[in-house]
Amino acid sequence: MRQGYRPIGNITSEESIPPNCKSSITEAKNNRVKIGYKEYEIIKQPEIIEVKGDYYGKTETDEEKITIASKFSQKVQNQTFLHELLHCIASKYDLSINQDEHTIELLATGLYEAIIDNPHIFTMKDI
Ligand SMILES: [Zn+2]
Q1: Is domain 2-6+26-118 annotated with CATH 3.30.2010?
Q2: Which of 36, 49, 60, 92 is paired with 98 by a 20 to 30 Å CA distance?
Q3: Ligand 1 mean position, distance from CA 121 (Å)
Q4: For residue 123, how far is its CA from the centre of ligand 1 (angstroms)?
Q5: pTM (2 decimals)?
Q6: What are the sequence ranges of the domains in the chain?
Q7: CA of 104 relative to ligand 1 center, distance in Å
């Protein structure tokens, strides 16, 4: 299964991203993310050219790879990462939204905005 991502709509402006949320995916442990029994390799490359158009990212669930186009801004790369992460989770649970780019995109945007607007939630000990 392959998923390409070319989002539409607005993404929160980069200026509003708190410094502690700017840690890029390049700092992810060994550039891998574990989703259930799968461990996806996160690959950053300037652009994704195998499909016509300007894609921000893609997920290859069988190959366990997430590719992010690094020529875009950090905020776009972060949002793209969340988008691809949702594909990985939807794939794990065989959710039908995995084929619904619009829903995946809205969930990624909502999640990204909630993380950006509430940087304290991951430092609170009681939640
Ligand atoms: Zn997608």
Answers
A1: yes
A2: 49
A3: 26
A4: 29
A5: 0.76
A6: 2-6+26-118
A7: 6
